[in-house]
Amino acid sequence: MSLNARKVQDKTANDSGEEYVAKTELHHLITHELIKSQYVKDNVSVRARSKPLAKTLLAQKLVDRLYEAYSSKPSKSFGSFNGNTEENRSQVYVRSYFIDKKTDFKSFSLEMADALASESKRSSASSGGHVFIAQFTHSSKDYLLVAVINDEYAIALNEEEDKGDELEEVGFLNLKGLRFAGQLNVTAWKNNEGRYLSFLKGTGDVADYFKRFLACDSSISNLSDTQSLTKVIEDFANSVKIDGAPLSDKQRDAFFKKVDEYCREMADSSLELHLEEFSNVVWPLNPDALKSALAQSEEPISDGFVPHKKGLLGLVKFSGKSQHWSLSFDREAIAEGNIQLLEDNSIKLSGVPSHLIDSLRRETSES
């Protein structure tokens, strides 16, 4: 039974006996140590772990939270393997493990960690940390996730007053601060689908570091990304609520207009659209909600695409034509009743300019 459906119970880890519902089906998890100081390119090494981590409840929770943390990041680039197997060996290791079945998970993970270390030598922005490599299934799709996670420390209250200091420093894995991570949709890759690779965009050298490691060709399709963005915006407007109530027609149209104006301004200036900034500008009431919707788009949206005006059609303006006529109107025309779709699939126009009415009358009377 898939862990997507079944419940995992571990009373040793959870004294209350509460059941934990896993969000992924964990197959393998391992971590190796990447030893490197940031802004230093030399002296990079990997301290290998002797075996994969046991599939305990905590391991399951870690993978679930790691997948959620990665999926919730809107600033990702998507692509596919670049085919350059001489320079980018990770794609060779992936094929050897998943397709040819020539290596076990531990050996495969060490090959990937060494490949990451090699790319880290070329990047001053990269840093060391725990290299987590997880193989799992989510929603009937197989994934491989590679992430570099650092330790963080916090001050905790020691409630056992008779055991020394009342305050103590505790360490934890900083999943929220995830900066270096990439993911392979194994199922999509095997099915020859496009854009099965992704990595956190970051800026400059940060993005190039993981892009090279994953051997990712992240060529952007401005039109398809704009169309995917428009689809998410429409779905978001139909589901989001303000003070517990759905958006009114006026609020929805104003939101669409704001998105349209923002995207057209970027298109006119050939500027890249970055999803975090976009969300903050067009939906300041709760930008995190929009960021989440964009990050979980059914069709992946690459951060940094230049909006394509053709992909915005239907957001504010509607248009169509046949051999003998063309028609274009905006949402306000629908809201004000000037455009009506009748049951026989014909369109009724109101508020037609008088000069057009006069011309039509002359034409029809003469005929």
TrEMBL record:
The reply on keyword Nucleotidyltransferase is no
Which species is the source of this protein? Vreelandella hamiltonii
Name of the molecule in the record = Nucleoid-associated protein
Instruction: Report the coiled-coil segments.
Output: none
Q: Name one GO molecular function term.
A: double-stranded DNA binding
One Gene Ontology cellular component: bacterial nucleoid
Compartments reported by the entry = Cytoplasm, Nucleoid
Q: What is the lineage of its organism?
A: Bacteria, Pseudomonadati, Pseudomonadota, Gammaproteobacteria, Oceanospirillales
This protein's major location comes to: cytoplasm
One Pfam family per UniProt: NA37
